[in-house]
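Design job #97: recover the sequence.
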């Protein structure tokens, strides 16, 4: 397995290397049967309220609203961010992921964060966030130390 320092990829254009990097870090996509059993693995589009300074470069600079959505993977999540016509994917393995629920929700990992606005679209994702937390707990339990 490779060690990747780049955890945010420009995924505007197809790049076979990106598929391998993502698979190494958070696992391959779930199969169709798994997706059906889980009743979906993607969130609806959410409004980004704020990001850490080291992520400002992938946000719209004008007053446009920034959007993102999340995809579950076996060992982590992918946060897909849209900036105009460009797409960026932030790869977050579960062991690095920290979630805070304060006036919306924010994801923290790798010295970065993204905060989602507590809007109608965010409320529609409540079930998705519960599923995300369940998957993270399942993952963490595999590696927990016996008492």
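Job complete. Output follows.
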């Amino acid at each position: 397995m490779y060690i990747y320092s780049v955890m945010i990829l420009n995924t505007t254009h197809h790049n076979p290397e990106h598929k391998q990097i993502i698979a190494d870090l958070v696992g391959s996509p779930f199969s169709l049967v798994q997706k059906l059993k889980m009743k979906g693995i993607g969130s609806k589009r959410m409004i980004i309220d704020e990001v850490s300074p080291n992520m400002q470069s992938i946000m719209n600079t004008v007053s446009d609203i920034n959007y993102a959505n999340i995809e579950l993977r076996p060992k982590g999540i992918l946060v897909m961010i849209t900036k105009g016509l460009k797409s960026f994917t932030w790869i977050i393995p579960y062991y690095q992921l920290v979630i805070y629920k304060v006036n919306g929700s924010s994801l923290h990992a790798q010295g970065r964060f993204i905060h989602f606005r507590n809007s109608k679209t965010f409320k529609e994702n409540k079930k998705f966030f519960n599923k995300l937390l369940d998957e993270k707990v399942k993952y963490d339990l595999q590696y927990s130390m016996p008492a």
